[in-house]
Amino acid sequence: MEKKLIQKMTVPDLIVKHIEELLTSGNLKPGDKLPSERELMELFSVGRTSVREALKALIAIGVVVRNREGTFIGDTSSLFLSPVTKEIILRRSNLRELWEARKLLEVGLAGLAAESITAVEIDELQKILANTERLVIDDSDKFIEADIAFHHAIAEAAQNQVLMQIFVGIREMVEEAQRKILETVPGVKQRAFLEHKRVVEAVKQGDKKLAEEAMLEHLKLGLEFIDRVE
After folding, report:
1. Domain map (residue ranges) of the chain
2. Does 69 or 121 have the greater pLDDT score?
3. What is the CATH number of domain 11-80?
4. Nearest one of 175, 220, 160 to 62, comparing CA atoms
5. How many C-beta atoms lie closer than 10 Å to residue 64's C-beta?
6. How far apart are CA 134 and CA 150, in angstroms?
7. How many other β-carbons are positioned within 10 Å of the β-carbon of residue 80?
8. What pLDDT is stored for residue 170 in this prediction?
9. How far apart are CA 166 and CA 160, in angstroms?
10. Whether 135 contacts 113, CB under 8 Å
11. The pLDDT of residue 92 is above 90
């Protein structure tokens, strides 16, 4: 008989599986608010760490979204991802692995954006850039939102829906990583803004090679910070 690998499920994995079952059965629907962490701890008879790991995994694939009003069910389409794709997203990757993946993905997106960006999209990037500059000495949470909005706008301008969905799949992980870097390394916001500015200038010129180089330098900067965090 052929040997089969049986993967051992952790407590957070079991919580994720149970929430997914509630979604597929219709007991939970997009827009529904999830119970608090304490209530989930009592519901599943588990510790806070397990609940947080489970929520983090669901946020990573977009099934759960979190804002100032609480934690809600988001886009459930990722429930239908292939098991291999979902496992890649859910796996607890370290920051260096995440940034290496971003280099492969976002350098290409920047190049495509330079070739296909519209005047409307350039205006939107300029607005995001101006907002980012204002937030350099302001609220870190809002700066992170502006940073993610910038990279999202570049991905949209690339006009490639497959690559866009991959970017969306890792967006929450990127946001979490950015927060960790900002909390640890001083001077990140100013340098990130300057790197964003270089990317925008290259994309505006329609220079694919220059846009790719600017994005690569920007992400290399992130790797430099990660070495100081991990």
Report:
1. 11-80, 93-229
2. 121
3. 1.10.10.10
4. 175
5. 22
6. 14
7. 8
8. 80
9. 10
10. no
11. no
Rounded Cα–Cα distance for residues 30 and 178 (Å): 27
Helices 95-116, 188-204: crossing angle, 10 deg rounding: 30
The second-level CATH assignment, the architecture, of 93-229 is Up-down Bundle (1.20)
Nearest to 96 by CA among 230, 3, 197, 1: 230
The single-letter DSSP state of residue 35 is P
Q: Give pLDDT tens digits for 17-43.
A: 888 888 888 888 889 999 899 999 998
pLDDT confidence tier of residue 1, bands split at 50, 70 and 90:
very low
pTM of the model: 0.63
How much is the pLDDT for 212?
Answer: 96
**H helices present in the chain, as ranges:** 11-24, 37-44, 48-60, 83-90, 95-116, 119-134, 140-157, 161-184, 188-204, 208-229
* Token pair recorded at residue 91: 């796996």
